[in-house]
Each structure stands twice: as structure tokens, then as C-alpha cells.
Specification:
Shape: globular
Number of helices: 9
Oligomer: single chain
Largest sheet: 9 strands, mixed
Length: about 375
């Protein structure tokens, strides 16, 4: 007797994916990774009338399934290209008979996109659970943007129903500041790479976290007991000159023990922003935290510079399942950054060590919270 697939709903703040999992498909690691921010439950009648963005049918591993027709021309692309070899995912793509085919050449994972049927078929190769994660994250973020969300390049620390956003360019020190807030002031990790912002009907703005794979520089890893071991860094490691605080030489950190070391916020929370930090950390004797200067309009411009999109970048078009619908929501995204520009904000320079003495009371909280 053939066992029927299990059907799950994956949900992220109104974005739904249906996941049909065949016996032996091997999605457990992918679901564990996503579980900090997406809910997964068995399918049931949906009285809201909400349609899934896509149905993902994950089949049992099979090297022959989902290959493009023989003789189809394929092109070399990247599902993801990163300065880190660990996060770089090369692939081959082909199109035939209205379908789009993609094979991750590292793992053998295959996708077949059928826009007309709203179905994406998947087979996972060896160690390919992160390929499925990448697909889910890409679909969810693009749908969120197509329905008016703004995605900020920011980490987010959660405590008592509010978040502190830490935003800036790559290498600014966002992860370091996030972990300082968690380690010393009773916060939890809401987001370690990007934060999704929603405008509510009353015009207020709330923040939702996003699942990411920790990617930390040596200067950050070395600060916290136990993190060097989680990152697999030996005691004899010496960073290249000038790069202890730079994006060069970052380490991919196993997310499961990382979450045990630095606890995550409750799944599915979406909360107001209490404060914003703009770090530019680096060598120095003291960490200096100062109120952000300039007008509210200036702050809004700084925030807009850190808004990012899954539709942008060299590898954004690795598949064409969803069209770019952001143009209909530009005014909404502008309103979101304008509201955030009114939130108390500070700049942070120096090595990034936060203490009760240098951290604003609005962020540090009551003295008994710090530890």
C-alpha cells in the first residue's frame, strides 16, 4: 500500500505555502531551521479564502526525477552567490514547455517550477535541506514585498513585547550588537540578518523576525564563551591583519547550538520598534553610544538606504515563479521608514561592548534586567 504524502501549511504573517511531503523526502532539517519564524501545521479547511503562494511537492530522493527533457539547453547560474564558499550555491537552469528547471550542482537538489499550476516540485540531494530553505525564504520574502512589507537589513533584539533594531551596511557590527543585547540585557534574538516591517491599519509599524544562518566575524565569535567551539574555531586561529571586525573571513555557525546559546524570541511575534542602533564598530578602547544627529527626514533617508529586496541583486532572478509587484507599494514602504525615523536612535562606535554605563536607559531597561 502506498503511503500518502503529508500536507503541511507553512505560514509567515499572512504568506502561506502548502508543503506536500512524500515519505522519505527528508525535510526535517529544513523545517527545524525554519521553525523559529514560520509556523508549520497539518493542512485543514481554510475559511479565510486565502490561497497559497505555491504548493511545494517534495518527493523522495531520485536522481532521475525533475530533470529537463533531453537536449534542453541549460545555463550556469547561482541560486546564491556569497563571499563565503559555504553559502555559495551554483546551479544549472533550463526552460521547456512552460516549465522552469533548476539543479543545484553542489547537492543535486532539483526544482521544477510550474507557474500556471502554482506548483513547485522538489527533490533534495545529499545535504540539500538548505536548498529548500532558500526556496522557501525567497518565495516568502518576495510575497511579503508584493503585499507591502519593507525588508530592512537589520538584526533585531526582542524583549517585553518590543524590539531594538540594529541596522547598517555589511560589516557594520549588527550581529555583535545583537549578541551584546542578548548576553547582557535579557533580550532574545528576533532576527540575525534582516527584519520584516509591516504597516498596520492605524498607521503604526511592527517588526517580524526572519530565519537566517548565523554568519559571524572572528571579533564577534571570540567575545562569547562557547561560541568559538560552536563555530569550530581552534585555539590557534589568528585572523588576518585588520579583519577581526570586517566581513572578510566570517564563519558559518551551526544554527541549532547557536540558538541554544543565544535564545530566540517566541515564534510568530510581530511587535513595535522601541529603539534603533546604527553601529560602525571597529578597533578602539571604548564603545561610544551617542544620539543620532540630524533631522527626522535625514534618519528616514538612512533607513531607506538599508531597505533591501529579494527581487534585487545579481542572483535575484534564479527563478521566475513570482513577478515583481513592489511598484504598487512604494508609498507604503516610504511610510514605514518615515514612521521608524521617529523612533529614538543612536550611533555606536568602538569595539561594540555594551555595559550599563554606555547603553541608553531606553535600551538597557531596568537595572535588574542586565546580567
Amino acid at each position: 500500500m502506498t503511503t500518502r504524502p503529508t500536507t503541511l501549511w507553512l505560514d509567515f504573517h499572512g504568506t502561506r505555502l502548502d508543503l506536500e511531503v512524500a515519505p522519505g523526502a527528508g525535510v526535517e532539517d529544513a523545517l527545524a531551521f525554519l521553525a523559529t519564524h514560520l509556523t508549520a501545521e497539518e493542512a485543514k479547511p481554510d475559511e479565510t479564502g486565502r490561497e497559497p503562494v505555491a504548493t511545494l511537492r517534495v518527493h523522495a530522493p531520485d536522481p532521475e526525477r525533475l530533470a529537463p527533457p533531453a537536449g534542453t539547453v541549460q545555463e550556469d547560474i547561482y541560486l546564491r552567490k556569497s563571499a563565503s564558499e559555504f553559502f555559495t550555491v551554483p546551479a544549472r537552469r533550463a526552460e521547456a514547455d512552460g516549465l522552469e528547471y533548476l539543479e543545484c550542482t553542489k547537492t543535486g537538489t532539483r526544482f521544477r517550477f510550474d507557474r500556471a499550476a502554482r506548483v513547485i516540485d522538489v527533490t533534495l540531494g545529499a545535504g540539500g535541506h538548505m536548498d529548500l530553505v532558500e526556496l522557501v525564504r525567497d518565495l516568502v520574502l518576495k510575497h511579503q514585498e508584493n503585499t507591502g512589507a519593507a525588508v530592512l537589513h537589520a538584526t533585531a533584539a526582542y524583549r517585553d513585547g518590543e524590539v531594538v533594531l540594529v541596522t547598517g551596511a555589511k560589516g557594520a557590527g549588527k550581529s555583535t550588537v545583537l549578541l551584546e543585547l542578548v548576553e547582557h540585557f535579557g533580550y532574545q534574538v528576533l532576527s540575525g540578518d534582516k527584519t520584516v516591517l509591516h504597516e498596520l491599519p492605524d498607521g503604526s509599524v511592527v517588526a517580524a523576525g526572519w530565519p537566517d544562518y548565523p554568519h559571524l566575524g572572528y571579533g564577534t565569535v571570540a567575545k562569547y564563551p562557547g561560541l568559538r567551539e560552536i563555530a569550530g574555531i581552534g585555539d590557534d586561529y589568528v585572523p588576518a591583519d585588520g579583519h577581526a571586525f570586517s566581513p572578510v573571513g566570517k564563519f558559518a555557525v551551526d544554527p541549532l547550538p547557536f540558538r541554544e546559546r543565544f535564545p530566540s524570541a517566541p515564534v510568530g511575534v510581530r511587535v513595535p520598534v522601541a529603539a534603533i542602533l546604527h553601529p560602525a564598530i571597529g578597533p578602539g578602547e571604548h564603545t561610544v553610544v551617542e544620539p543620532l544627529t540630524g533631522s527626522r527626514a535625514d534618519h528616514a533617508e538612512v533607513l531607506r538606504a538599508n531597505v533591501e529586496s529579494a527581487f534585487d541583486g545579481a542572483n535575484a532572478g534564479w527563478h521566475h515563479y513570482l513577478d515583481d509587484g513592489r511598484a504598487a507599494h512604494t508609498a507604503q514602504v516610504a511610510r514605514i521608514t518615515d514612521v521608524l525615523a521617529g523612533v529614538p536612535a543612536w550611533t555606536l562606535t568602538g569595539p561594540g561592548d555594551l555595559t550599563a554605563e554606555n547603553t541608553p536607559a531606553a535600551i538597557a531597561g531596568p537595572a535588574e534586567v542586565a546580567r
